[in-house]
Amino acid sequence: MFDEGVVVNDFERNAWWEYKGAFTIKTTPEQDALITTYVEQRRRNPGRYNLLSGRHCGGFVQDALRAGGIDPFGHNVAHPGAVFEVLKALNDAGIDLMRHFPVPVP
Would you state the torsion angle of the CA atoms of residues 4, 7, 12, 17, taken in this order, to the nearest 10 degrees? Predict the structure, then answer.
């Protein structure tokens, strides 16, 4: 529940039977660059994993999307699996995450 964090591909971390699926979130080249920069920064300095504080795979995905200007939740979702399920459901429903869920400007 609390240990050193690491950024790896799900296929390196999970067994094949744990695979939930995949989908693509539409992004612009600029968003791709911002998200990639965020991922690489976290890869170099992942911090500590903490399931209770949101420092987990679901929080990582949410923070990466926010770095690219996409915030479909408006807050951190507590359960890592719920992040995938909600993002997939929005995607399957044809919701454009770039248009409907931009990061709020303070």
Answer: 90
| Host domain of residue 66 | 28-106
The structural domain count of the chain equals: 1
Q: Is residue 7 domain-resident?
A: no
Q: In this structure, what token pair is assigned to residue 99?
A: 């248009």
| pLDDT by 10s per residue, the chain, length 106 | 567 778 888 777 778 888 888 888 889 999 999 999 999 999 999 888 877 776 788 889 999 999 999 988 877 776 778 888 888 998 898 888 877 666 665 5
Q: Is residue 73 part of a domain?
A: yes
